[in-house]
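In these records, each integer encodes one residue's backbone shape. Here is one protein:

___
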Amino acid sequence: MDETKGVHLQFKKYITETMSDGEFITYVADRILYVGESPYQKIQVFENCVYGRILMLDQAVQFTDADEFIYHEMLSHPAVLAHPSPKRVLIVGGGDGGIAREVLRHPEVESVELCEIDEKVIEICREYFPKVASSYDDRRLHLHVGDGVARLRSLPAGSLDVVLVDGTDPNQISLGLYSEAFYRDIAAALGDDGVLGTLAGSPFFHKEWTKLVHRELRKVFPVVAVYTATIPTYPGFLWAFCVATKGSDPRALEDPSRLRRIEGQLNYLNTKLHRAAFAVPSFVARLLGMEV
């Protein structure tokens, strides 16, 4: 036996996310940075050689260094651009600060209130994801730690221009963020040109979630537009979003100069993609009873 030939074993740590009942994705955790729990959820931060740092809540990936810009740009900008003069914005959820970062790129915005119930998420993201959480250094951002639904109901009627809902997957805690009652509270707080933007899940893996958001929004708002984006680390890759308004067409970029002005700061959205994003795949249109 040649004793000069050693056996080199490299033990790795693996973290698995359940995509559906029949599919899982496993990440190699090159370095685990944080594991803990808040009163609301389990929180994990680890590093991966492909995606950089990854944030997981209750064993579900929220975003990664590599592709966070796609989700944050696509949830925020189509809704903000649908309003002719967005000055007052409320974000429900979004404690990582990424949605606020994107909203604050618009110079018209004078005030952003971020309502996050889990203070621990804010703390962890400011420590481990400073690029995403950079919005906390902007004087226009006002943080409200607490129930976003209750905060919304306390605001004067017509006091907001845009509301963005950055919630987790529907569960016992967050299901109310996708209900007709909640959308009516938002409509009441929005002014005449008010706009709501929200996530609608994966139309491939979460058909019922996508249908739920679209159906409940249509009960409240006269105009509801669906669009999609491709996010590499999200189940199904293709994810749906909805923009609901009190009358304006979110698909029409009435003033393209507003988007062109910030295009150099963006990595996903541009004027051509804005128009194309609303042309949804046929299976999504059929799922929602829209014309193909």
